[in-house]
Amino acid sequence: MTQFARVLDFDSGVAMIVTDLHGEGHAYDQIKSTFLELRREGKADRLILCGDLIHGYRESYNDDSLRMMLDVMRMQKDFGSDTVTMLMGNHEMPHVYNITLEKGHHEFTARFEESLSQSGKRDEVLAFLKHLPIYARTKAGVLISHAGATPAVTNAENAERIFTFDHEALLMLAEDKLQSSYDLENLKQHRQYIRQVKNYLAIDSVDDPRFHHLLRGQIISQTSEDFSFLWDVLFATNEKGWNIGGYNVIAEAFLKAISDHSSYQQKVVVAGHIAVKGGHQLVGDWHLRLATYAHASPHNDGEYLLLDCAKPIEKVADLVACLRPTFG
Ligand SMILES: [Mn+2]
Question: In angstroms, what is the span from residue 89 Cα to ligand 1's centroid?
């Protein structure tokens, strides 16, 4: 039974678990047809996409992010949210807040905002993104997430804080602050700001109701403690931020905290988010890193996980037998 909006509980069915497709339409189509086939054969009951569905890493190719996102939304509508689930990744979150996201010289959000504007489906997509859960727990004791364990969530209080995370409240707070203490008319004269909203939010007119949203996003990302907590959850660096021994301690405390108010102790965590050689990596004692395509090296060695949500597992190594090649 799910009590909180940002955490789901699955106690039955076989889940096909997929990570980080990053706008790679060819990989998405392969995953989708595999899922539909497994479902027809009674070998899988649900599809769980662990976030970072969007944002291609390559500059010059056809980024299928929006097509994939709309297709997931359609599938969820057709099959139900118990059958098609998507978790929030650190690449979906920036669009909720209108912040930018860069890696090296590559800025990710502008291209997706542009395609949102062209599609005329911004409102539907944004509503979908705002409702995304962050974790899925299973009776198997396998916690499914985007980025894995974080020191930001290691007690019951912080677990509840992330389970009940309210983007809308944060946005409204910043909106109020902006409306009462900024001269928004003056912002319309600001040439550099106009250039930025055109680029990052695909806005052409200073009278667009979203015109001030880039500034609002900057205010939130620079001043909100809640936002910084959400950032720590979605951008967790796992063992790279500590070392493997330290991460084991954090992951154990994290799994204990996440298991709070749950009937089933979560024993291991599955996450994507970070690149691996091949399609997976065991990270310390409690974490399976899974790369279905974009973070697999080479990409074609990507894997997904076929997990019986009802069958308890004992240790993280037990999951290796549940891995399947994306292109098999
Ligand atoms: Mn990613």
Answer: 7
Cα 52 to middle of ligand 1, angstroms: 5
In our burial notation (b when 16+ CB lie closer than 10 A, e otherwise), range 47-86 reads bbbbbbbbbbbeeeeebbbbbbbebbbebbeeeeeebbbb
What's the pLDDT band for 58 if we cut at 50, 70, 90? Answer: confident
**Across 117-126, average pLDDT:** 97
- Here the tokens at position 214 are 């880039």
CATH code at 7-165+236-325: 3.60.21.10
Q: For 3-18, how does the pLDDT look when each residue is reduced to its tens digit (9 = 90+)?
A: 799 999 999 999 999 9
Q: Where are the domains of the chain?
A: 7-165+236-325
How far away, in angstroms, is 21 Cα from ligand 1 center? Answer: 8
- Nearest to residue 198, comparing CAs of 211, 186, 185, 187? 211
- Give residue 51 CA to ligand 1 midpoint distance, Å: 8
Ligand 1 centroid, distance to 290 Cα (angstroms): 11
- Residue 1: its pLDDT value, please? 44
Ligand 1 centroid to 22 CA: how many Å? 7
Q: Residue 288's beta-bridge partner residues? A: 270, 282
Residue 2 reports pLDDT greater than 60:
no
User: Mean pLDDT over residues 236-262, rounded?
Assistant: 94
Q: Taking residues 200-205, what's their average pLDDT?
A: 96
Distance 293 CA to ligand 1 centre (A): 10
How many Å lie between the centroid of ligand 1 and the Cα of residue 271? 10
